[in-house]
Amino acid sequence: MIHHGVSIEGLCCLTRLVGLYLVINVPLREFFPFYIYLDLIYLNVRFFNVFFKEINSSIFYFIFLFICVILAIYCKQMFESEVLTTAKLNKIKQDTILKNFWKNNDRFADLFNTFLFNGKEILKPDDLTEVDTDISSMLKFNGHAETVQKILDVVKKTAYGIDFMILGLENQSHIHYAMPLRHMIGDAFSYQKEYNEIVSKNKKEGNFASTDEFLSKFRKTDCLHGMVTLCIYYGEKEWDGPLSLVDMLDIPDKLKFIFSDYKFNLIQMRSCNNLHFHNYDINTVFDLSSSIYNRDYEKINNLYKNQPISPELALVVGAITESQELIDHALENEKKGAINMCTALEELKKEGVQEGLQKGLQEGLQKGEVKGIIQTCKLFNPDQDAALKLIMDKFSLSQETALAYIKKYW
After folding, report:
1. Residue 82 and which of 30, 42, 241, 402 are 20 to 30 A apart at CA?
2. If we measure between CA atoms, which residue out of 159, 89, 92, 101 comes closest to residue 125?
């Protein structure tokens, strides 16, 4: 027992209780440093208790409380700083934002109607039903089997007459040079999935009209439903990839006609001026995104000066163009229900200036390094070819650009 009725054991218990409270009430990432420090204090208190039977409890008690307060302030500041950083960055996944945008039946129907049927309302929003996007399958060949995963972004089916067809949508932010093959495999997996379902059903029922039906497990009257997949490319660069399977084949043009081709449906957001959507949301997203890519802020100001847009659309545009300022602006104004693009425009301009400054700084640093390397090579090894190869490899430069640097600094 020590002075003033405060025992070492009491302080130890207090330390453990504070730690236990933190474990129960605070997430791991927030309490962890504080709890570790409390454990260290606890161990030190136990150490003092072993080697010293009595200490000035009043002094120790106040020191202990002071340390706890300092640690609490430190953890609070660390947590607030983390929250502020997270709020400022607003890290979102483009894929998730776009999936949610296209799940809306009105937008989905207008997209397909405009691209496939020249704007005629063949597909009706009320007839669309969302279906499973996972069309993964197992491939078997010569005794070898392999599972292949394929998940589309949005898949819906629609009644057309007495039957239905399946509509798939894939969002693409970068050029993929095997896209026709990917789409062919995806559509084939969709057909394979439906075929497997029909075969399973036929096996249970067992009503086959012939030996051929029994062997194939597919009746003569059975049919698969049509699958149509669209790919929307949102990238800033022009699509320079293949548009059909034949484009991917290394064969002479005069022989291409003998091979079965597979074309895929591509919509390039930046060059779809020939598509006239009826849906306001699609028009707004595509128009704003293209204008931002083109840095055409005057057009944005003229068209949207007195026309606020919803935070949802601003968020989609920000996700497509990877504009962090627009994403932050959309989330900050989510409760207001509308965003003035003039205000957002100022943020976009600032972001553009910052990007330009950063790019200029990087280019300046690169030029400085290139100049230094070339002059060093000239001093110790007067072989221009060696210097040319060195700067091409180090800075991933084309031969033309590297030669221009050699000519300038040699």
Report:
1. 42
2. 159
